[in-house]
Amino acid sequence: MDKDRIKAFADKVYGDMAGAMAMGMAFVGVKKGLFSAMAEQGPMTREQVVAATNLQPRYVEEWLAGMTTAGYLDYDPDTGTFALPDEHSYLVASEGTDHFMGGLFCAAPGLLSVAPKVAEAFEQGGGIRFEDYGPDFAQALDLINSGQYEQRLTSYWLPQLPDVAERLEAGGRVLDVGCGVGRVAMTLATAFPSATVVGLDPDRESIRLAEKEAAAAGLSQRIDFIAETTRQYTPDQPFDLITAFDCVHDFAEPEATLQDIRSLLAADGTLFIVEPRAADRLEENVNALGAVYYGFSLFHCMTQSLANGGPGLGTCMGPAKTKELLGEAGFSSCEQLGIRSLTHLFYSARP
Fold first, then answer.
1. Overall average pLDDT of the 57-65 stretch
2. 3-class SS of residue 341
3. Greatest Cα-to-Cα distance within the chain, rounded to the nearest angstrom
4. What does the pLDDT read at residue 134?
5. What confidence category does residue 343 fall into, taking pLDDT thresholds of 50, 70 and 90?
6. Exposed/middle/buried for 124, CB within 10 Å: 0-12, 13-18, 19+?
7. How far apart are CA 218 and CA 222, in angstroms?
8. Does residue 135 carry a pLDDT above 90?
9. Where in the chain is the domain with CATH 3.40.50.150?
10. pLDDT score for 207
11. 301, 254 in Cβ contact below 8 A?
């Protein structure tokens, strides 16, 4: 055996474990406001960070040391101060923006908490149902995506479908399938006050949270949130636009669900899909984002589909399978849109 390769792989394993520990520490940094307290403040002593956060000194001390060793903070041994670089703050202390990455930290504990049950599923089959992750995980997923939905959906993504935007401005009807806690529906309702907006999700806890968020935003009268599947839902009128963001690969019955969606669309309506940016071939996914997405798949997307008797398409379903599913569901056309994104792919389909 190649001893240098053994050493290099040992270093990688330690690096991967360091990454897992960094995720946990960064989760605390987001949840307890440590990153926000240090943003744009320059070098700070431990005492100054404690005063700014009102947190326990010993915990803050260990967190500062850990985040320094993980490369998130800069440390000056001469002054004993810690600093969050502006370039790091841009990504971890920027909640609500389209570049905030803190939601990943909040999702990590939920994903890894089910690892023992997923290991059992390797032998027993089945998987983890979405409702078993609890409301904190639904909110973590929202934290990952909310900034992009709020900042890009109506300003950049939808303008790629100008006829759709025009119909919504004139009072069209839009349905968000797999609405989660309602971020897409609320963004659309805010941008198109004349439109009819409906959010659909089979998870009752997500719908409860969506209704709570809509009420806080003053949008309760503008959006109907419904805890049903596409098979159960029977609206009085078809929809001009149906959105399915980060959920087609989760479907337990992808072809049947897409057929349901097609039946809910107006004859000249549009299905707008957003899916994780993954290539069709494994060798093209051998990178950090690919590892993140396969981890999400194993511990969430694939397993929750299998738990419901589905095919477990997984997070890295890819463009070819997406287009194949749409064709099998009876859509007459499918176009991969030229929207630029480091993390997502975009499709429009017509009945």
1. 98
2. coil
3. 70
4. 82
5. very high
6. exposed
7. 9
8. no
9. 107-350
10. 96
11. no
- Residues forming beta bridges with residue 81, ordered by sequence position: 76
Q: What is the pLDDT of residue 147?
A: 95
Q: Span 119-137, mean pLDDT?
A: 93
Q: Where in the chain is the domain with CATH 1.10.10.10?
A: 3-93
Q: What is the pTM assigned to this prediction?
A: 0.93
Output the CATH code of domain 107-350. Answer: 3.40.50.150
Identify the pLDDT of residue 297.
Answer: 98
Distances (CA, A) of 217 to 97, 133, 196, 197, 211: 17, 26, 17, 15, 10
Q: Which residue has the tokens 């303008």?
A: 159
| Per-residue pLDDT at 71 | 98
Q: In what order do the strands lie in the sheet with 223-226?
A: 223-226, 196-200, 173-177, 239-245, 265-276, 344-350, 333-336
Residues of 218-256 as b/e, b for ≥16 C-beta within 10 angstroms?
ebeebbbbbbebbeebeeeebbbbbbbbbbbbbbbbbbe
Say if domain 3-93 classifies as CATH 1.10.10.10: yes
CA distances from 164 to 6, 97, 170, 268, 336 (A): 56, 25, 10, 10, 16
